[in-house]
Amino acid sequence: MTTARVSTGDEGPRSKRAAILTAAVECFGEFGFEGTKWSAVAGRVGIGQTALYHYFETKTHCLLTIMRLELQRSRDQFTEATAGQSDPVEALRAAARAAFAVSEHEILQMRILQNNLSLLAVPRTSAKEETERQAARELVRQIERDWTRLLTRGMSEGAFPVRDPHTLGQALLGLIVSVWRWYRPGGPTPLSEVSDLIEGCCVRMVAE
Amino acid sequence: MTTARVSTGDEGPRSKRAAILTAAVECFGEFGFEGTKWSAVAGRVGIGQTALYHYFETKTHCLLTIMRLELQRSRDQFTEATAGQSDPVEALRAAARAAFAVSEHEILQMRILQNNLSLLAVPRTSAKEETERQAARELVRQIERDWTRLLTRGMSEGAFPVRDPHTLGQALLGLIVSVWRWYRPGGPTPLSEVSDLIEGCCVRMVAE
DNA sequence: GTGTCAAACTGAACTGAACTCAGGTTGTGA
DNA sequence: TCACAACCTGAGTTCAGTTCAGTTTGACAC
Which residues of B touch A167 (CB under 8 A)? Predict the structure, then answer.
């Protein structure tokens, strides 16, 4: 049950919100969102199904919350990794490496995010779902802008050949996140190798 | 309603299978699989909901069929594009270009495939669903093998530096298909530009 | 032309998972 | 020790997907 992390601070002392999020990440990550029964998450936390509705308006609201939190974490990690880097190539390398410096739990969150990104395209009818969706969309936009900025800076400094920075940013992002579609911990290729290979790909894509 | 394409040949003279597939592609592509009601597809074709079950065992069976057909089409296109190319770099370029030489209807199919790939990971209980899932998985494996082969050949001929060809193939595929997540016809960047940019990225990733 | 039969279809009923309702319990903090 | 908000529950509702028990249709043989 691991009542750890994911705390957003605004919870009561006997709140199970964090436990629900953790359980949901494990279920959604392993069986997929549609593949997991909402009641199974309740069972794993040790409460009745209806108790879930005290914390989340709907099952989708929980999913969107997980996605938003993961986007926030990803973006913070990017910001932290690139903060000190003055050389554009080094900044690019740091950003790519940061994307793969994740725990197994975070891998699940990336996978969930990846597999349900299309949810963000269509408006939701439930109020809280829509709020989370908007927040997630805004984070996606900011992350795209972060990458575009990194590329634009590198191009204006002459470190990267000039190309459409926005489309190139999308391509880099697509390349990096696509890893979570097939990568499995304990698989044939260790994550460190994947990380090195993708880092090199990013640099060659952009800087040559 | 456009009773065109997608015919697999083994249908009766008054079959609406092709019309259902076309309508389903349009609905699933625009609103997402979970976002479209199965009855809405029936409505678009002009039949009652229950008539759908004459052609597909379940809604998911229809989705898996669409995905399998699109994988088949993609693979054929790869094979045709790379057939005559003896130079590895030219073969790589041709493969990348072929991936973007698609109609608007095929773009929808790529999007559907992309958004529901995680379905292929977990076994299905329905017999026909499971058959389509196995076929789709096999096609994915073959497509990965096609790319790996292309890379291995280029490396052994000295046209590409030696790197893990399987992981690099996954990266190329991930880069290419990730485009369908954000690309929209009539958007700011025309597909021809995207195609050129991604083609260049592929070559730099692999050949430098 | 006419009869046959599988293919094609239908309205009514069923199912199961997400969700609502109308309260009951609990433990924190005043 | 009492109040009350946070937390929880079992019983019921809803609705999309699916099954059932047939009816209609039209291609083809004769």
Answer: 189, 193-194, 197
